[in-house]
């Protein structure tokens, strides 16, 4: 297959996802949730809708048009260690390996065993020759290159074993929001999407807000009351109640609207059901702080994307095909092997 043919297969996959029948989706969603209770039907649907939108023909062609058309001579064996924090989070890496012409040796996360395999089966049904380019393995030894996603701790392990090979090794990241006081009720409701989608488990989920004054939190918490249904999920509720009890026992000051805890902290990564906040005096001070923490931040959201290099509220979990994790161009890396 040529580069364009491989890309076209993914476009066709996007169309197939969009055309799924309700019965087919329900069957898939049940299997996915049985594997991981965090991956509810709504979360799976959102993830698949995002993939379908990302794989629209115009978007894929525009993305590929930025690179020099290049066919690999001898395909490299690329080990892909996938995370499993949100549904099909490793799909983008898989796509990059296959479109670039290499062979993907995939180690799935135990938390996402079903959806990735379903996507691969659908892709191979569209383009059977790609079936030889995807290998699922438990041990990824002696590959030509590696793409590994995990925590800060696992990244040290990955670096020890894979550092001598061409590799992309990703650590913990999170996302933040910047408020400036102009936000409306609608803006806060859009921001809530960035906080609660996937129950806050993704690196593109907002775990902290920077604001000019704490009074904004009251308006924010009132505006997002419609998300109280989040606590109907037993795992989220368990985390909410656990963190609340810890704060109460320790007499930690916090705000509580019944399903989200807001706590002042200089840290970036908050526990599930907790949103950290921090005041800033001026934008220059804020910029210096965020630049100093840029290695830990996946994306920044703000009202209508006013803050430099940010995305608009509600769009954090709607990445485009060129929104590479950790801002490292995976496709360029693979083309250079």
From TrEMBL:
**What's the domain of life for this entry?**
Bacteria
Q: Name one GO molecular function term.
A: acyl-CoA dehydrogenase activity
* Matches recorded under InterPro entries: CoA_reduct_LuxC
Q: Which keywords label this protein?
A: NADP
A GO term (biological process) for this protein? Answer: bioluminescence
Which is a Pfam family this sequence falls into?
LuxC
Q: Any idea what this protein is called?
A: Acyl-CoA reductase
Query: What's the source species for this entry?
Result: Echinicola strongylocentroti
């Amino acid at each position: 297959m040529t580069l364009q043919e491989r890309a076209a297969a993914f476009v066709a996959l996007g169309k197939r996802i969009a055309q799924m029948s309700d019965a087919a989706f329900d069957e898939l969603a049940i299997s996915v949730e049985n594997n991981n209770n965090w991956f509810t039907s709504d979360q799976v649907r959102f993830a698949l809708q995002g993939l379908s939108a990302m794989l629209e023909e115009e978007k894929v062609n525009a993305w590929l048009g930025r690179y020099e058309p290049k066919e690999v001579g001898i395909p490299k064996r690329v080990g892909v260690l996938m995370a499993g924090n949100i549904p099909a989070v490793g799909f983008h890496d898989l796509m990059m390996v296959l479109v670039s012409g290499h062979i993907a040796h995939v180690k799935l996360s135990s938390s996402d065993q079903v959806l990735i395999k379903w996507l691969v089966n659908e892709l191979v049904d569209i383009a059977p020759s790609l079936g030889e380019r995807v290998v699922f393995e438990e041990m990824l030894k002696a590959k030509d290159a590696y793409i590994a996603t995990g925590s800060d701790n696992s990244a040290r392990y990955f670096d020890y074993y894979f550092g001598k090979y061409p590799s992309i090794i990703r650590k913990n990241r999170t996302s933040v929001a910047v408020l400036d006081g102009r936000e409306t009720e609608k803006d806060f409701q859009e921001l809530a999407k960035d906080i609660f989608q996937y129950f806050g488990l993704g690196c593109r989920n907002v775990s902290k807000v920077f604001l000019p004054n704490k009074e904004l939190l009251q308006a924010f918490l009132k505006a997002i009351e419609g998300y109280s249904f989040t606590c109907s999920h037993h795992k989220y509720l368990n985390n909410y109640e656990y963190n609340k009890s810890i704060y109460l026992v320790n007499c930690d000051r916090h705000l509580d609207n019944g399903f989200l805890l807001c706590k002042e902290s200089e840290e970036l990564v908050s526990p599930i059901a907790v949103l950290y906040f921090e005041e800033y005096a001026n934008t220059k001070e804020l910029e210096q702080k965020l630049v100093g923490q840029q290695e830990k931040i996946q994306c920044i959201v703000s009202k209508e994307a006013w803050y430099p290099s940010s995305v608009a509220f509600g769009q954090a979990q709607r990445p485009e095909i060129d929104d590479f994790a950790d801002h490292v161009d995976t496709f360029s890396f693979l083309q250079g092997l």
